[in-house]
Structure formats: structure tokens, C-alpha cells
Amino acid sequence: METLADWLPRIGACLTVLLGLIGFFKPRLITDAQQITLASPMALSEARVVFGGLHLGAGSMALVLNDPSVYLTLGVAWSVGVLARLYSMVADKTSLQHSLPGIVVDAVMALLLLGGHLL
Question: Tens digit of pLDDT for each residue in 1-21?
Fold first, then answer.
């Protein structure tokens, strides 16, 4: 019988895939929310890669391989995303108000993916 600790990383991987699908097919939904301007077709292409392809590929492989080390790797990546947002608040003077939604999303994703190791 599988436990919650077994399912949390799978849920995190599924959400990573979902975010990847959004970033791949509708990148402006993500970039507009983050105040990122896509001023050229190449900028749109880069957004599809970063917000779509990487998330879609990583989340899909986590589900296909179903290996704790892959979930751990993906969870650490989301954790470093939180660290990057916190660093940006200091280095780039981004406000907590603008950074908080991203911090929450990244932290929840990290906790889901690391859940199997934390529980």
C-alpha cells in the first residue's frame, strides 16, 4: 500500500508537467504574470523553452522513471528557485509583494517533490 510520502512527489511532478504545458503552449500566461515582456519571436521562443520545455521534460521524466533520485533532483531545483527569488529581493530590489506568489509556488513544488524524503 502506498503512502502519502509516495504520492507527494508524483503530484509535484504532475504539477511541473502542467506548468510546462502552459509554458510551452501559452507562455504569455506566465510571462505576463511575471511582468516579462516578449518583444520578438525569439523572446517568445526562449520563453517556451525555459517555462515550457524544461518543466515539461523534467516533470515527464520524473513520472516515467519514478525514481526517488529524480524527484529529489527536481525538488532541489525548485528549492534553488526559491533561493534565487530571495536573492533577487536583495540584489535586484524586488519587493516581497511581487516576489511572494513565485516564492509560494516554488516552495510548494519543492515540498511536494521532496515530500518522499522529508516524511
Answer: 688 889 999 999 999 999 999
pLDDT for 51-77, tens place per residue? 999 999 999 999 999 999 999 999 999
Q: Provide the residue type at 77 as one letter.
A: A
Q: To which residue does cell 515527464 refer?
A: 60
Q: Which of 114, 19, 20 is nearest to 68 (CA)?
A: 114
Q: Which residues contact 79 (CB under 8 A, 6 or more apart)?
A: 106, 107, 110, 114
Residue 93 DSSP SS3: coil
Looking at residue 69, its amino acid is: S
- Indicate the residue type of 106: D
| 81, 106 Cβ separation under 8 angstroms | yes
Q: Quote the CA–CA distance of 99 and 108 in Å, as a whole number.
A: 14
For residues 98 and 102, give the distance between their C-alpha atoms in angstroms, rounded to a whole number.
8
CA distance 47 to 30: 9
Burial of residue 77 (CB within 10 Å: 0-12, 13-18, 19+) is middle
